[in-house]
Amino acid sequence: MFKQISALTKLNIRSIPQRWGMSLATVFSVALVVLVLMAFLAMANGFRATLSGSGSTEVAVMLRKGAQAELNSGVSLAQLRLIREAPGIARNADGNSIVSGELYVIVDGLKRTTMTDVNLPLRGVEPDALVLRQGLKITHGHMFSSGSNELIVGEAILREFAGFDLGSEVRLGTATWKVVGVFSTGGTVFESEIWADAGSIQSLYQRGSGYQSVRAKLDGADGLKALQDWAENEPTLDLDIITEKEFFSSQASGITNIILYMGWPLAIIMAFGALAGAWNTMYASVEARTREIATLRAIGFAGFAAFVSTLVEALLLAFVGGLVGSMIAWLVFNGISASTLGGNFTQVVFAFEVTGEAVQSGIVMALIIGLLGGIIPSIRAARVPLLSVHSG
Amino acid sequence: MSNTEPLYVLRGLSKQYSRGKETIPIFSGLDMEIAHGEFIAIMGPSGSGKTTLLNQLGGIDSPTTGEVTFDGKRIDNLGQGALAKWRSDNVGFIFQFYNLMPTLTAAQNVELPLLLSPVKGSERKKRVATALEIVGIGDRAKHYPRQLSGGQQQRVAIARAIVADPKVLLCDEPTGDLDRTSADEVLEMLQLLNTKMGKTIIMVTHDPAAAKYAKTELFLDKGKFIKRGGKK
Ligand SMILES: Nc1ncnc2c1ncn2[C@@H]1O[C@H](COP(=O)(O)OP(=O)(O)OP(=O)(O)O)[C@@H](O)[C@H]1O
Ligand SMILES: [Mg+2]
Known about the structure:
The structure holds two protein chains of two kinds. Chain A is of the alpha+beta class. Chain A has two domains: about 1-50 and about 250-390, no CATH class; about 65-235, no CATH class. Chain A has helices spanning about 1-15, 20-55, 75-85, 130, 155-160, 200-205, 225-230, 245-290, 290-300, 305-335, 355-380, and strands at about 60-65, 100-110, 115-125, 135-140, 150-155, 170, 175-185, 195, 215, 240-245, 335-340, 345-350. In chain A, strands 1, 2, 3, 4, 5, 6, 7, 8, 9 and 10 form a ten-stranded mixed β-sheet that branches. A two-stranded antiparallel sheet of chain A has the order 11-12. In chain A, strand 11 (about 335-340) and strand 12 (about 345-350) form a beta hairpin. In chain A, helix 1 (about 1-15) packs across helix 10 (about 305-335), helix 2 (about 20-55) crosses helix 10 (about 305-335) and helix 8 packs across helix 10. The longest helix of chain A has about 45 residues, at about 245-290. Chain A is elongated. The mean pLDDT of chain A is about 90. Chain B is of the alpha/beta class. Chain B has a single domain (about 35-60, about 80-230), classed as P-loop containing nucleotide triphosphate hydrolases (Rossmann fold, 3-Layer(aba) Sandwich), CATH 3.40.50. Helices cover about 30% and strands about 30% of the residues of chain B. Chain B has helices at about 50-55, 80-90, 105-110, 120-135, 150-160, 180-195, 210, and strands at about 10-20, 20-35, 40-45, 65-70, 75, 90-95, 170, 200-205, 215-220, 225-230. In chain B, strands 6-7-8-3-9-10 form a six-stranded mixed β-sheet, sandwiched between helices. Chain B is globular, with a radius of gyration of 18 Å. The interface of A and B includes residues 3, 11, 18, 386 and 387 of A. Bound molecules: adenosine-5'-triphosphate (ATP) and magnesium ion. Adenosine-5'-triphosphate (ATP) binds near residues 47, 51 and 52 of chain B.
């Protein structure tokens, strides 16, 4: 039976050039579906990678209980002072705990590519913020001085949004700021932020002495537990304390789900179009080969061999389409930079990431299209009436 | 060598097609025996059922009623799979329009029936070469059907029909699409296969000149056979 099937499969595949146009159209429609799917998957993956790469397991993030995002959180100066003395937090050479009280406000920006208004995050930080972001480097200019109207901006901000060039004056809200430095954090979400002195933000945005979040360097693996246990017993501290990594992955999941919920249905709707194309092509293939198939059956080949060989043709066309789609996706999307709304309703800049897993999903989708599009024509091939040997 | 049992025995063979409520009888109650080593030409007007009869003999269609016995074994009641196996073991088909696979070379076309047998690759190549030699186009093994004349294509089809060494060759208008010269060459070939290799041949033809190559000429009309003579 295997000899039969392989002989008929070869025969089918050799006959594809006789249907170049249709076969090619099938390959391209499948490729298009896979391309769209991959675009969304690459977006979701890139976003997820950027956010989860941003979080450290050695840094604790503290927000008001139930706040979930920095934007709607609040931490008072009294609470911050208490945290500075808390156990489980690492200390620097001077014996001071490594803690940064931070503020987070939204400012307007202009996206370079589309010249549209977007929300950008302005973060007020204390000096320890630099130590709390691993790999942070000032790549151009210098750190802002405390109490000033100076800003430093992440490299992604510089790249994607207009008006933040080093040395330029920027109007944010009612105040005018000066960009004095550019920093890099190796592609994490912080590169999509603008930083200024926490004190300046407090006064310019009428925040009094309050903060929105507190970050602290944890003292070893047990640090988090120690900190959490301690906070439990401090009645004035009503805070959620989690690692920064956890914080970002919870932020990422909402957005990546939205991307995926948009991507999959669109790809599936398009897949129906491709399926109809594949069905049509395979139907034409069987139609064109009716007398050949009947002749082979008369010679003694089994209907099952005709079925399998036709299905293999469909799967092959779809598979090639899947490969082409993935290839194009990889060439075009992989690494391209994009920005979208992050968990705080501000822009997060991230790179598309075409992963092996996404390629796998694309190929599987292509094969499903081939299978569903090919099955009925294949059954038809198996049922070609033997009397068709006489058809002209 | 001599086999006194007939190769085919047809008993009360009837075939009718139904078109809507109407049933169209093609033939009914046909009785017939065909001996081993026969070469029969079946003539008759268009629509008289010649092809339909050949389909019953070749097991690619089943009779409405009646029995077809081949070599002592009923074939009219075999299932699809068994019938396919029977065809590959016993029958070589030759069609008016050759029915070659356009994307396969002559040799690959001829090899097809052997793919259904346990014959090994190298042995297959040998048998294909022999079959092509027998029909006189050994030098065209690598040509595709479109590179061959009608007569040459029919020779390839004959090579394909005989390569698995079947007992019977069933030919439907084998020269219907050929000029006189090519037709005569093909008919001589069939005659040779009959006399030298002992193949039983049943050939449907419109052409009285073609029928002359057969040992027996039969005339089918209104569902009945009229024997018109032969050389024996
Ligand atoms: N599948 C079918 N369904 C209905 N009627 C059919 C079918 N096949 C053949 N017939 C009818 O049966 C009759 C005999 O057909 P058949 O092909 O056997 O004739 P034939 O003698 O071979 O004719 P020709 O010399 O033209 O080839 C014709 O009237 C034809 O229309
Ligand atoms: Mg006919």
